[in-house]
Amino acid sequence: MLTKAIARVDKRTKELVNRLNSGEIAVINHEDLDEVAANSLVMRKPVMVINAAQSISGRYPNLGPEILEKAGIPILDHVGEAIFNRINEADILEIKGNEIYIREQNIGAGTILTNELIKKKLEETSENFQFELDKFIENTLEYAKKEKDMILGNLKIPEVETKFKERHTLVVVRGKNYKEDLHAIKSYIEEFNPILIGVDGGGDALMECGYIPDIIVGDMDSVSDECLKACKEIVVHAYTNGKAPGLERIEELGLKSVVFPAPGTSEDIAMLLAFENKTELIVAVGTHSSMVDFLEKGRKGMASTFLVRLKVGAKLIDAKGVNKLYGESVKFKHFVGLAVGAMIPIFIVGALSPTVQQLLKLFVIKLKFVFPMEFLGRYHIW
């Protein structure tokens, strides 16, 4: 294999992709390359990815390398930080086999991750996964004890101008399959006109789909200037001691914001902001909810997310993976049997009970996530 191209270098993959062009070489330092990062690289169409770290360390089954391999983008893996530091932005790199050359000088080598090697490494992760799971659970419980009072009762919620009462809220994180899920719930967004909260880069995800975020929540490390200037309000996530690294950027842009000191992730505080301001329903897209999601974010536990989801309870609908339901073949007779059996008693009791009427309303909303509008309209169900 012989490859010659311009190098784009950055330790932070999410920043690298903003200036990576098709046909260039992405030089990263990203241990356990995650799915979101891999998909962002695939979209930029590099000719190769050189990783200073191990793309699969063996701690858990991360899917990033497999995504790149399937897209036909070779990975020269684990070249080491010494080589990473020798490569400068816009250097012309020449890759011969697994060796790297700059101006005909060999600066080192790595390992080409073939399909077979990726599968072998992923199989080996199963041996360590139980150990990682044990550590993850222990950390989650430990931090849950420390954070429960703050999150469940004593957390001060900043005042915002947006009025949440009697409205739905859509919280968008630029996580797994966020684009497909946003497209799948487009009819819901158009009909209910929910308050749109973008969590950092989730704001750009909304703008990509043609929506202007009402609020951007986060530490401001992955949202564009254009999105920050277009949104109506900005909530900067700060540490519990009040320090807010993202505030400096907002001030440099000459924008107004409020600071929200809180433990946990920015998507957690976005949900709390909506919940404490009496939103009627919270719909989440692209959020992190599994152990692998959190390990990919570099977090050792999910205490705050666990506590927040306990608190928001029945008001939360997680739309992760809803796009896959739209692709399923559903037989009409199955749907009719399910609908008739479930709806008759609900309608009878609902006519008398305000509480059940509210539950019915939530059921109908959830129905929209399962079945596309054209399907419901075709059979005169909607």
Which helices and strands, and how do they pair?
Blueprint: E1 2-9, H1 13-16, E2 25-28, H2 35-44, E3 48-51, H3 64-70, E4 75-77, H4 81-86, E5 92-96, E6 99-102, E7 105-109, E8 111-112, H5 115-154, E9 168-173, H6 178-184, H7 186-192, E10 195-199, H8 202-208, E11 215-218, H9 225-230, E12 233-238, H10 247-252, E13 258-261, H11 266-276, E14 281-285, H12 291-296, H13 303-312, E15 316-318, H14 322-326, H15 332-350, H16 354-370, H17 373-378
Parallel strand pairs: 1-2, 2-3, 3-4, 9-10, 9-14, 10-11, 11-12, 12-13, 14-15
Antiparallel strand pairs: 1-5, 4-8, 5-6, 6-7
Q: What's the short version?
A:
The chain is α/β, with parallel strands linked by helices and 382 residues long.
